[in-house]
Amino acid sequence: MHIKYFSWVRDQIGVESENITISNEITNVYDLLKHLKSTSEKHNKALNDISVIRCAVNMEVVNLDFSINDNDEIALFPPMTGG
Amino acid sequence: MIKVQENDFDINLEIKKITSHNKNIGGVGSFIGIVRGNDDENLKSLTLEHYPIMTEKMLEKINLKARNRWKLIDSLIIHRYGKLYPGDQIVLVATFSQHRKDALEACEFLIDWLKTKAPFWKLEETSAGKNWVKEKYSDLDAAKKW
Question: Which of A34, B87, B101, B125 lies 20 to 30 Å from A43 when distance is taken between CA atoms?
Fold first, then answer.
């Protein structure tokens, strides 16, 4: 699974993107966030407050209960501030 | 039409490109967003980051929504990214219709929606340091009213 990070989420985690292999136990975005938080202290800190994390799966913004699979492109970022 | 670009734009040129070949257009609604110098802290620059391809997709989606809701002859969104400075233009929304109501309402809708739904993030650099701009409740409320 390919994961991209943007804005301060990327700054805090320290990488722009990463590839991870997910276990069968990870079925939705919420599970993925929980898993990522366990991978390092930086991930844990960046993703600690889920209320300020937005997620896109294959470039569509989705909710935390959205189902994901290994071929998806996931992006994690803070609320958008365009315009 | 959607354009996501680093370069600046000229509103007169952009509008003429569309009005010159659409003689039914009776009005143009337009909005230009500009980098605002901050009164309290001296804003040095504003860097806009975006999520390529998703940005274009989201802007297309928002644009289509406007085209389905209002009677528009054409519409244009130009959004810049990269490092900008106070006074620089960030975004142009222009809507073209036979009558003003459609153009004006659609223009307001487009700018309200793209503020919270297009994947852009702003990094402010002031004399105090660098700071990612937070989402504003007023922008969320503005987007909800549609």
Answer: B125
CB contact under 8 A, A6 and B111: no
Global pTM value: 0.94
In chain A, the domains with their CATH numbers are 2-77 (3.10.20.30)
Strands A17-19 and B120-126, how do they pair? unpaired
Contact between chains at B116 and A80 (C-beta distance less than 8 A): yes
Partner residue facing A56 (CB), from B54, B120, B121: B54
Contact B133 A4 (CB under 8 A): no
ipTM of this complex: 0.94
pLDDT in 10s for each residue of chain A, 83 residues: 999 999 999 999 999 999 998 888 899 999 999 999 999 999 999 999 999 999 999 999 999 999 999 999 999 999 999 99
Question: Across the interface, which of A4, A56, A78 has its CB nearest the CB of B121?
Answer: A78
What would the DSSP string read from start to end of B22-54?
A: -TT--EEEEEEEEPPPPSSS-EEEEEEEE-TTH
